[in-house]
Amino acid sequence: MCGKDDGAREGARQNPFAIGLVLLAAGVSVAMIQYKVPTILGDLMVRFSMDAETASWLMSAFTLTGVFVALPAGLLAQRFGAKNMMVAALGIALVGSGIGLAAGTSATLVASRAVEGAALTILTTCGPLVVRTCVDPDKVGTAMGIWGIWGCVGSTAAAVVTPTVFEAMGFAGVWVAFAAVAAVAAALVLVAVKMPAARAASSLTDGQLPEKSIAEDSIGASALRAHGRELLSRDVLLFLGGFSTFNICLLAVLAYVPTILQSQGVDPTLSGFISTAPMLLSVVSSPLFGALSDRAGRCKPLLVAACAVMGPCTFLLYTETGALLWAAVAVMGLVGMGGVGLFLSGFVKLLPRPEFASLGMGVMVMVQGIGQFLGTFLVQMLLGPDLGNVFFAGVALMGLGLLGTLLLVLCRLR
């Protein structure tokens, strides 16, 4: 099936930095679409006559979609090829942006966000599969470290750029500009990613063909029921539990810190920068953690450290405005965000069989979607109707972050 993706010679491997950067561009383009909302949420509420609860669905619908799309995305990657599905995902993002641009009601705008969310889910499911196929096994951590910062770079770019574009060109300008970035990214993936011609990403084992045929080793919905216990082992469940709390804290920062700071008189552009500065620092920490993991042959200590700081840093970002806030930004960025790529490479190591790659990645992205949905919907409930219960919400999020750390400690992962 990868023969459709590219005619590259069988067994060819690409530079991990080149693959990582191309996939990073694709991920950033859709992450910018995801995070174009928080810094102009107040303006959107006025434009579409939304209350706070309805407005929260502009982020929640985006993340909730991933819960339902992730597993089918893995199966589609297995059927049509991971690269092809990444390009399709970017096309879906364009469709969603078009619906949003034409929206005349809040319901239509929320629906467009769900379409855009489906695009992100497919993209994030397929990206690691492309890395696994195109990069040498001992360089996967490096490529994943680069790819893994897509959300961080995209959210930062959106937080900084959106207020300026909105002020200059209005609602339509934001939606059109960010869609144009996605279109460019689609062309880049189509041209630059060279898939091995032998088979789909999901069917390859470190670049070598398994002995069984595609029909024999493909994992579908019926196989999920048959092999669910094998795939969802104790260690996988512990790992996914830690991963979900990581995402709850991350989205709680990205979605609500701008609004919390703006309610205290902070400039919208500065509030957006503060909320996404940790993700900007991940440009350094995530590739570094990936390289350290490759060199040491272990990722658990780094993952535990990353997860351990997420809860306390989220609490400080919710409750502080001075030096402690900036300290939390630095620690979350340099330590917490170092784990974004390691979660991907660490999960692959836990899979019991290589042919579970596509389905397993679908499960992981589904859990990510649940965590991100809770990071918007649940946190909005914790904050209250006026988003004023910041101390209570901060304490709850700190507890969740520490619980996730404990789950990773108990996981038998190297």
TrEMBL record:
It is a multi-pass membrane protein. InterPro entries: MFS, MFS_dom, MFS_Efflux_Transporters, MFS_trans_sf. Keywords: Cell membrane, Membrane, Transmembrane, Transmembrane helix. Its main location: membrane. GO terms for molecular function: transmembrane transporter activity. GO terms for cellular component: plasma membrane. It is found in: Cell membrane. Gene3D superfamilies: MFS general substrate transporter like domains. PROSITE patterns: MFS (PS50850). Residues 15-413 form the Major facilitator superfamily (MFS) profile domain. The chain crosses the membrane at residues 17-35, 55-75, 87-111, 117-135, 147-166, 172-193, 236-257, 269-289, 301-318, 324-344, 356-378, 390-411. The keyword Transport does not apply. This is MFS transporter.
